[in-house]
Amino acid sequence: MKFNILVIDDEPNIREGLADALKMDGYDVAVAEDGKKGLEYAATHDVDLIITDLRMPVMSGEEVLAKAVSDFPGVPVIVLTGHGSVETAVDAMRAGAYDFLTKPLNLDRLSLLVKRALRNREMVLQQRELEEELSSRKTFEHIIGKSPAMLKNFEILRKVAPTKASVLITGESGVGKELIANALHNLSPRKDAPFIKVHCASLAESLLESELFGHEKGAFTGAVSRKRGRFELADGGSIFLDEIGEINPQVQIKILRVIQEKKFERVGGEETIDVDVRIITATNRDLVKEVEEGRFREDLFYRLNVVSIHVPPLRERKDDIPMLVASFIKEFAKENQKPIEGIDPKARNILYAYDWPGNVRQLRNCIESAVVMAENHVITADDLPPGILPNHGGQFIQIPVGTTIAEGEKEMILQTLAANNGNKSKTADMLKIGRKTLHRKLDEYGVRDL
């Protein structure tokens, strides 16, 4: 990415000297002799950094700074002052300047400051691009992903949501199975009818049947009045049975009957109740194995598994990490009223190299913690929870059996990069590969776009 820098200074020698120095560093540079002309240029061109003198005729540097902060949010402004006044510099920083330099200028110091400011600018632009991409992908309500596996799931959702078919959602804990269930209901003709959710694993076995099908007064100790069950409450809509693999055989039989006959009786009751309910289930268990070992009814499994949607773990769809991180930063920055604009490369590399055993839920908690801990407008590695930071004491990389050579190479590069805190030169040296090769590999993995 080539950056465009605007230099505003009323002294021709300084203005042109700065422009020449910055062009030698590889930047596109525009110049303006006063603040009014400079702001007019910024209003009609893409400007990534503004360098402005403070003491100028026509419009002062303070006025330029105030206007730039207001009209071009996210564009850093470096102010120049020939007076060396600490108070002036502090006032400029309070007004929103990225940093300041005093005249006569130290060009080495300027070069480093410009690089740092533009690195932050690049992070802001990346965050905005990801947020724009997120805005264009609202079809499935908070389901974020562009990996091949998730795009395939989106296509299945489009096809099955309008139907009455039962859907079984599989995947590890924390991958977002409930979001898939929400989308199935909200994209269906039943979207305005009840959507009842039941987490089967959270209910005691003795209470699950009553919770699902209701009970009559006196049906058991403590049943002091009639209670309508979740299936009855979901009539005309959908019911989501999370962790369906945890239910006992007696409840399995009653659910099978509801699917087949659309009828059931409350616990302790004789009245047959008719219901029209779309059943969506989810599990982190291998139900095929559960059927083989006799813990889950085969006939019920096939009834539930009319359409199957598998949500892969985050470690298998790391291409989705950039969009997820952008979404979580935006969410928690707003919630905590913090001006977080992005995440720096070192922290990005750590997120990308980590395996995320807790999946998207763990990533979400990680970003929430990082936003809370961040003291600047960019999340750094120091803001990340200690649990996901690379273990510098252990000189090994774990690669699962069955990993392809290409996947193993990718994992080795990313984990080594994370262990070296994002230092590409050190990583290339450690892996005995050229720096150009490392940069090419990182481009292939999309790491710079995280």
Strand residue percentage: 5-15%
Q: Order of strands across the biggest sheet?
A: 2-1-3-4-5
Cα separation of the termini? 15 Å
Rg of Cα set: 29 Å
Mean pLDDT: 87
Counted beta strands: 16
How does this structure look, described?
- The modification 4-aspartylphosphate is found at residue 53.
- This protein has 450 residues and is an alpha/beta fold.
- Helix content is 46%, strand content 14%.
- It contains 18 helices and 16 strands.
- The protein has helices at residues 12-24, 35-44, 61-71, 86-94, 107-135, 148-160, 177-186, 205-213, 230-233, 249-261, 287-292, 298-304, 321-335, 345-353, 359-373, 405-419, 424-431, 435-445; strands at 4-8, 28-32, 49-53, 77-81, 99-102, 167-170, 195-199, 214-215, 227-228, 238-242, 263-265, 272-274, 278-283, 307-310, 342-343, 378-379.
- Strands 2-1-3-4-5 form a five-stranded parallel beta sheet, with helices on both faces. Strands 7-10-13-6-14 form a five-stranded parallel beta sheet.
- Helix 5 crosses helix 13 (321-335), helix 13 (321-335) packs across helix 15 and helix 14 (345-353) crosses helix 16.
- The longest helix has 29 residues, at 107-135.
- The model has no long low-confidence stretch (mean pLDDT 87).
